[in-house]
Amino acid sequence: MEVRFFKPFDEIAGTSAIRLKILGPTPVRDLLKRMEKEIPSFKRYVKKEGDEVQNFFMILVRGGEILKLDDLIGDEDVIKILPPISGG
């Protein structure tokens, strides 16, 4: 699996992308726990409430789909971590 970080999360993580090996379908919740351990500076941005990551911190996207904590992801997926988009 590839996880791509977009500004400002690339600076927080210290990289624009990481590759993680995932065995079988895994909930997004478990991916976030793993990222908290592997990238300590990222931990404070992982805020969860109910079944969603609080979207004022970050948005996880697979293709055009915004992911919830219980959505399953696989080793072939590309997950993008984006800041929330605001309009004006």
Task: Looking at this protein, list some descriptive labels.
88 residues, Ubiquitin-like (UB roll), five-stranded mixed beta sheet, two-stranded antiparallel ribbon, 9 strands
Runs with pLDDT <50, length 5+?
none
Helix % is 10-25%
CATH C-level label: Alpha Beta
Known CATH architecture:
Roll
Number of domains: 1
What is the ordering of alpha helices and beta strands? EHEEHEEEEEE
- From the spread of the alpha carbons, the general shape counts as globular
Strand content: 25-35%
As a whole number of angstroms, the C-alpha radius of gyration is 12 Å
Distance linking N and C termini: 35 Å
Mean pLDDT: 82
What structural class do you assign from the helix and strand content? alpha+beta
User: Strand order across the biggest sheet?
Assistant: 2-1-9-6-7
3D structure, described in words:
The protein has helices at 9-13, 28-38, and strands at residues 2-5, 17-19, 26-27, 48-49, 52-53, 59-62, 65-66, 72-73, 78-82. The longest helix has 11 residues, at 28-38. It has 2 helices and 9 strands; from the N terminus they run βαββαββββββ. It has 88 residues and is α+β, with helices and mostly antiparallel strands. The strands form 3 sheets. It has a 5-stranded mixed beta sheet with strand order 2-1-9-6-7. A two-stranded antiparallel ribbon has the order 3-8. The radius of gyration is 12 Å and the shape is globular.
What layout of secondary structure does this protein have?
Layout: E1 2-5, H1 9-13, E2 17-19, E3 26-27, H2 28-38, E4 48-49, E5 52-53, E6 59-62, E7 65-66, E8 72-73, E9 78-82
Parallel strand pairs: 1-9
Antiparallel strand pairs: 1-2, 3-8, 4-5, 6-7, 6-9
